[in-house]
Design a protein that fits this description.
mainly alpha; globular
Length: 101
């Protein structure tokens, strides 16, 4: 599958020609959810489906998302509020969030 230009533009720290949807799906989902614009997110939702995005966020405990991004995806993908709140209270995550916030 050929990645759209909007996705390739997010791959500023790697060689885009070496990134493929099938081989790097989780990496691409994380990158697009965290850094993508609405056009790129719409492409991702059409390509992967909301179920796959939900599964990825649950598996990673939203680690690559800022708190407000995580809360948005909680609402859009019907993630369990108590679980998301628990992830956000994790002291290891709070150190990172304070550094980035």
């Amino acid at each position: 599958m050929e990645l759209p230009e909007s996705v390739l533009a997010l791959l500023h720290d790697c060689d885009p020609s070496r990134v493929a949807w099938d081989a790097h799906r989780d990496f691409l989902i994380d990158r697009i959810l965290g850094e993508g614009d609405w056009e790129t997110i719409r492409w991702l939702r059409r390509t992967a489906g909301d179920g796959a995005l939900r599964d990825r966020i649950l598996a990673s405990q939203g680690r690559r998302l800022e708190p407000r991004q995580l809360r948005l995806w909680q609402l859009l993908l019907d993630l369990p509020e108590a679980e998301v709140s628990r992830w956000l209270r994790d002291p290891r995550r709070q150190v990172w969030d304070r550094r980035n916030g």
